[in-house]
Amino acid sequence: MIDYSKKRFLVVDDFSEFRNSVTGMLRLMAVKHVDAAARGEDAIAMCRNTPYDVILHDYNLGAGKNGQQVLEELHHAGLITPHCIFVMCTAESSQAMVMSALECEPDAYLTKPFNRASLQQRLDKLVERKLALKPILDAQAKRDHKAALAACDQVMETHKRFAPQCLRHKASALHALGKHTELETLLASLISDRPLPWALVMLGNHWLERNELDKAEELFTSAISQFPMLPALFDGLAAVHTARGATDKAQEYVEQGLRISPHSLQRQHDLGTLAKANGDYDKAIRAFRQAVDLGRNSQFHNPDDHLNLASSLNEQAGESAPGPKALLEIRQTLGDLGKTWKDDAQLVARANLVHASALTKTGDQKTADKLVTEASSLMADLPTFFSADVALEVATQLKQLGHADKAESVLATCAEMYGDDRRVMEAITAQTSNPQILNAGVQAQALNREGIRAYQQQQFTQALDLFRQARDLQPRNISFALNTAQSLLRLLLAAPSAELKDECLQCLAQVNTIPASDPRHARYDKLCKTVASL
Amino acid sequence: MSDDQAVNPPQGQPAEQESAQGLDFSTVIASTVHDMKNSLGLLMQAYERWSSELPPELSDTAERGMIEYESMRLNGMLVQMLGLYKLGVNQLPMRPNWLEVEDFLQEQLARHDEILRSRHIEGSYEVEEDGLMAFLDTELVGSVVGNVINNSIRYAQSAIHLKAWIEDGQLVIAISDDGRGYPPSMIENQSDYVLGINMSTGSTGLGLYFGQRIAELHQRNGVQGHIDLRNDGPLGGGEFRIYLP
Questions:
Q1: Least CB-packed of A21, A383, A441, B68 within 10 Å?
Q2: What does the pLDDT read at residue A241?
Q3: What radius of gyration, in Å, describes the C-alpha atoms of chain B?
Q4: Exposure letters A375-414 (e unless 16+ CB within 10 A, then b)
């Protein structure tokens, strides 16, 4: 017999009848602590105050968030530990299952109506399972993937019946540790035995990450013939085609995934982005509208959806002015953005440019100019400069608005910061022929390349000298600063020096505006941590 | 609890065809069934609350068992109907997983706990091999087994037995009772029911068809699952078997 008297329960359902009935069943199981909520938003607030042991959550709460969204928010906000039992209660579980993301599944589904015996039987099993998996879950709670991996093998040996769960945790741990070969072997052996949906999706995504696009496509395609109602497989195919640059095909697959599961913010965001790139503004507008809507009161809201909704509405009109309805929606959407993210100067500046572009077409040049001036003064003083993609977009907008000089200045900064990336330089070349911008980095980049060669040959002092020269020429370049910092660190690890440590800290401080979306951000973080630990 | 996304219209159907017909009747039925199921759920909860407050001499009546049993049956039929609709439009999600067979059987009996007790029917289960694991879709196979148990409750005198074992590499789940068994014509013509040819017996025939379709969704190395009806069950009555490769 499991002792439920000390466990804290939360029951979430929009019908008081159901909450009362479940609370009654729990009382009969000797549960003392039962809280109840009618809305997902309330449930999230209650989880901030009480770490619940068990959450029984209805999937479809009518208005507001559904159970899957609540679960994802709880995970994202760290309000739920791996030890908590989350049971999704549904009138019809197939509907909820289609919505669930494989990386954030409830511990169980319970089909309504259910009786006390069913509830207890299910909870008994779940408590028993969580207890057996405790060493793994403890390690996960500490994000210690190495310990989790070891615990998986250990639990599997003592509790053979929980092997399926252990193998799944093991796959996650291998993925987190970047042990690609072992992960691939494990997943391949699992699916050669049985078509395990989560393993199929994970192996497909693994090949996507390894850039094995043909393998990924073959796997996703064959998995879809077996599981046509698994939207993650369509997402996978869309990612394959996006990686190949076939955005039209990618859009088709995202649309198929959305037909199965329309309430996914990420999927609507993806569809909007692809449709906009494909010039399919009708679909882009609808998708971004949905994304904005789904993001309301959610931690997953993304300001880019607002900006893209407004600019898609603007671009849909082509050379002519957007209609009055579209203009109103543009104004409302950007107003909404300005209110929610009012302290983000980057966003306010970008919103101004989109708005100015729409107004120019209506002939209201005066207001448009005012917006551009505001945007420029914000941009002159940005605490963090744009990511390369955003900078390129902003430059295009400024040029279209007739401010070629401002566009050039954005491109110049972009070239200095990201110019060592060939892809970025190509995009800059497409926008300007100004030799000062295009050639400004040539000398520094040559020095940087030489520095890398020296570093690879373990000539750290020589490398440092070359990186320092590159950095002197282009102090805002992220790569040069990181390379200088890394060479300094090499020397510091061999022989401590307060002077070199200071210089290293300065290098890192200079590029502390590196956007979180930048692929080098992880490297930046690691360097910061290492220096701090010296 | 109602949700307009609960039942999607069939995929790939041209829009003109729909507008020409006014509306697609199977979609109408399916979304109505979905609402009916929600409604029934609320009705049952209200009933349960209300009856739990009655003194035992008023609540332990034959009518109570009847209400509980019939609402369970109604629920099972609605689930089956939605399942058949989704099968028809290729929207039935299949999510197989590894599970312990003993847990699965316990779960099926627990769902019918009150009814079995109020009808004084003993529900038991047996798994031939300790810790037997199987790969199947719990929801789908659960709804088939649930409906069969429901049907058995109607005919059983005092006992229902669930049994699971492996036969030629396939998992077999058998539900048997001590009732008078299936009518001989049904055993004889089971292949017709399974193929959806003979539906004259109403819900039982439809149940067999549904069971077969769910079993068929489970396949391995070219072998498909199937169902089988017989009358020489271990308790003397009918026996329903579902084979899952």
A1: A383
A2: 96
A3: 19
A4: bbebbeeeeebbbbebbbbbbbbbbebebeebbbbbbbbb
Indicate if the pLDDT at residue A11 is higher than 90: yes
> Which residue from B minimizes the CA distance to A163?
B98
Q: Do B131 and A14 touch (CB under 8 A)?
A: no
Q: What is the pLDDT of residues A158-207, one digit of tens each?
A: 999 999 999 999 999 999 999 999 999 999 999 998 999 999 999 999 99
Q: Quick one: closest CA in B to A166, which residue? A: B98
Tokens of B225: 């699952």
Backbone angles phi, psi at B224, to 5 degrees: -105, 150
| Contact indicator for A231, A253 with CB cutoff of 8 Å | no
CA B46 from centroid of its chain's CA atoms: 24
pTM of the predicted protein model = 0.86
Nearest chain A alpha carbon to B80: A92
DSSP A368-407: HHHHHHHHHHHHHT-SSPPPHHHHHHHHHHHHHTT-HHHH
- Chain B residues with CB inside 8 Å of A120's CB? 110
Distance separating alpha carbons of residues A46 and A37, to the nearest angstrom: 8
Write down the mean pLDDT value for chain B: 85
ipTM: 0.85
Distance CA B190, CA B205 (A): 9
State the DSSP H helix or E strand holding residue A116, giving kind and residue range, or none if neither. helix A116-132
Mutate to test the interface with A, among B1, B34, B36, B84 (most CBs of A within 10 A): B1
The answer to whether the CB atoms of A21 and B98 lie below 8 A apart is no
Measured distance CA(B132)–CA(B170) in Å, rounded? 12
Question: Is A122 in Cβ contact with B93 (below 8 Å)?
Answer: no
Model confidence at A443: pLDDT above 80: yes
CB-CB under 8 Å, B44 with A92:
no
Please tell me the distance from the alpha carbon of residue A396 to that of residue B70, in angstroms, as a whole number.
68
Q: Tell me the per-residue pLDDT of A92-151, one tens digit each, with 9 for 90 and over.
A: 777 777 777 777 899 999 988 888 999 999 999 999 999 999 999 999 999 999 999 999
B172: pLDDT strictly greater than 50: yes
Sign of torsion, CA A147 A153 A158 A163? positive
pLDDT of A533 > 90? The answer is no
Across the interface, whether the CB atoms of A121 and B110 are under 8 A apart is answered: yes
Contact A477/A420 with Cβ under 8 angstroms? yes
- The nearest CA of chain B is from the CA of A179 a distance in Å of 25
CB contact under 8 Å between B45 and A164, yes or no, is no
What pLDDT digit, counting tens, does each position of A253-303 carry?
999 999 988 888 999 999 999 999 999 999 999 999 999 999 988 889 999
